[in-house]
Amino acid sequence: MSHSIDPARERADHLALANALANALALRYHELVLRPEPLAGTDHIAAAALATAVAEHLELHADTVDDGTAAAIRHAADQARAEARGHDEAAWTDEAVVHQLGALLNEVTAR
Known about the structure:
The protein is an all-alpha fold. Helices cover 81% and strands 0% of the residues. The protein is built from four helices and no strands. Helix 1 (7-33) runs antiparallel to helix 2 and helix 2 (41-61) packs antiparallel against helix 3 (67-92).
């Protein structure tokens, strides 16, 4: 029995899965940063990681669409990277994070 793969259908399925993953990452990011209490340093680290994952995911799929859509995707990825940089900078200004990283570094260098 021969099964033929429809390339258009396969691409559509791939894009649908990619969009679902990007939406899940973006949703988790927004749940984290839009909550009423201020973010702690470790929250900023998580937010930076999520925003970076969103950007990388978007960039990965920008080449699979038409030029106009790709430009919009790349712009969204740039915005996500800017968000990640902001959270990364905020994490490094949090004394608890700096203390934890210093302790981790001391532990690693002591080995």
